[in-house]
Amino acid sequence: MLEFLSKLFGRDSGSSKTVAKERLRLVLVHDRSSISPQLLETLKAEMIQVISNYMDIDEQGLEVSLDSSGNSVALVANIPVRGMKR
Amino acid sequence: MGEVIVITSGKGGVGKTTTTANIGTGLAMMGQKVVLVDTDIGLRNLDVVLGLENRIVYDLVDVVSGNCRLRQALIRDKKLEGLHLLPAAQTRDKNAISPDQMLELCADLKKEFEYIIIDCPAGIEQGFRNAIAGAEKAIVVTTPEVSAVRDADRIIGLLEAAELREPKLIINRIRPKMVRQGDMMGIDDIIDILAVDLLGVIPEDEMIVITTNRGEAVVMDQNSRSGLAYRNIARRVTGEDVPVLDFDEAEGFFKRLKKMIGMK
Questions:
Q1: Domain-wise residue ranges, chain A
Q2: Which of A32, B68, B77, B131 pairs as cysteine with B39 (C-beta 3.0–4.6 A)?
Q3: What is the pLDDT of residues A3-52, one digit of tens each?
Q4: Does any CB of chain A come closer than 8 Å to the CB of residue B204?
Q5: Contact list, B191 vs chain A (CB under 8 Å)
Q6: pLDDT in tens, B202-234
Q7: CB B104 within 8 A of CB B71
Q8: Residues of B in contact with A22 (CB under 8 A)
Q9: Which candidate from B153, B179, B185 shows the least CB-CB separation from A31?
């Protein structure tokens, strides 16, 4: 329903303009904060290491990205947990 | 005293030179005394865009290195009394001049002209630093593409670091129909991301190709939308408050009718 409504009002998230804007937003977050993709990869690997000590996580499904809202930048991590370690 | 404005973009091919030629010509049409300075040394282009390529004797490097007097290198436009060009050297490279020399040149030009418009080369190296050295204001040109807007963002950062605060943005080659269909970033999208003031929007227009082929500026064409857009930009440069064109309005009766009956 929500999808239908957003399509109706022209906010189709699949449109190429939305894709362009989202890609641009992300690339600028990196440019402006001067954090390279390599650095982010290293950070990701180390996070996996630490979290794996406590939880069983899905490394393939792990997403780490920099996000911006207004003038602030946030590190957003989405880490699917398979189970706890005992 | 004149005002020195640099036209820059970071990315190549977004329309810096075309914009320089048209803003300069537009200002001269309003009766202003204008000089356009091509700082793209080694890749001279502003002369052909203006149709003045056959008149060049001396160039920018000749002036700053003292081979000729400033007055000898300035080329008067064929049609507009107030319009002048200081061409770039074609056979030298970007290191042939320094930011200090540009600063001095701009100070000299300010005594004689009301507007000094500097066409900056693409990139962020020596040529860019030369071009912005004497500038007091900056205009950033971009197109509605991820790569061009990204480079514009970088350039805006570099301009602000060089104390050229509050650069103004021109969005070139916009296609209103594609924006409406959700297949091109629109004015609001780009302004939202770059957080700068908008100076104007130029629609994609075949007339730019046609007039440039002839070595004329589209701003002199009274019937084209891009010409009107550039005339409006020139007026804004002089401080006039001119609203940004609504291209939907300019698209004709049929479109408006469709909109009226809700078929948009």
A1: 2-84
A2: B131
A3: 555 555 555 557 999 999 999 988 898 788 777 778 888 888 898 999 99
A4: no
A5: none
A6: 999 999 999 999 999 999 999 999 999 999 999
A7: no
A8: none
A9: B153
For A4-53, give the DSSP string: HHHHHTT--TTSHHHHHHHHHHHHHHHHHHT--HHHHHHHHHHHHHHHHT
Nearest to B182 among A10, A28, A31 (CB): A10
> What tokens appear for A69 in the block?
């809202």
Residue B8 maps to which CATH number?
3.40.50.300
Q: Which residue in chain B has the smallest CA separation from A71?
A: B195
For chain A, the residues whose C-beta falls within 8 A of a C-beta of chain B are 10, 12, 15-18, 20-21, 23-25, 27-28, 31-32
Tokens of A28: 């600028």
User: What is the number of structural domains in chain B?
Assistant: 1
